[in-house]
Structure formats: C-alpha cells, structure tokens
Amino acid sequence: MPRLKAAIDIDAPREHVFALAGDLRKRPEWTTFVKETTITSGDGSSPGSTDKTIAKIGPTKHKWDGTLLEFRPAEEYVRRFGGYFTGEERLTFTPNGNATRVEWKVDYTPPFGILGKFGAWFMMARIYQNEIEASLENLKAALEV
After folding, report:
1. Is the model's pLDDT at 41 over the cut of 90?
2. In terms of residue numbers, what domain contains 110?
3. Of 4, 60, 92, 142, which has the fewest CB atoms closer than 10 Å, so is most exposed?
C-alpha cells in the first residue's frame, strides 16, 4: 500500500485554514484533482457522514465513495475512500507560531493487484504525490492574501 505525505505552513490562523480545507464540499476550490464532492449522508462534518467524489488523478476521472471516520474542528479529519482505488487520508492542522502547519497523509491500495502495485511504484504514486503537493500550494495561495 503506497503511503504519501506532504505538509505546508500557511500564514493564517488554524480555524481559518480549517474552514476551507475541512469542508469536503469546498475541496474542488483548492485541490488539483477533486472535481466534485457531494455529501450523501450526514452533515459532512460528523463521523459517519458519507460523500461521493469525482477525482481526476492521471488521464481519467474516477468516482470515489467516502466516509468520514474522525472530525475534530480546526485539528484533524480522517476519511476512508473507495472506488477506483481504496484508502484512507488524514489531514491535520497544527499551530506553528502565527501560522498553521497542514499535513496530509494518504495510504491507498492501487487497483489491478500486483500490476497496479507495480504501476503505483513506477508512476502513479509520484503523480498522486505531485497532486497532493500542488493542492497544498493552492490552499496556501487561497488563504494567504
């Protein structure tokens, strides 16, 4: 299972950063690969809430079903996702002086068994890592004015 991790410091209060990054419906505003997120049950900010996401990592769009596992306002959320590939992501928001450190970890299982694992090792994990890093840069640009 590939494990990806990226972090960035954003010159904004933690609550302000979380207001954008912690709202699943706003993910298309700052992520490079999430094109649409719809809350399908719950309020989108309580454990057990579910969503449907359309994401484009690489050349094609894919649908994911997500379930919010943990949600602590201005601190962290954890979401499990499944569809084209499955995994879990954790975003944490930590004070860092007057800034906020956002750390994004993703563990996922690529599709297509051993062939998918080779593809992830060879190329897909790097593409996904680049998307995460670019998304955090977008988040920083949106919040630092």
Report:
1. yes
2. 3-143
3. 60
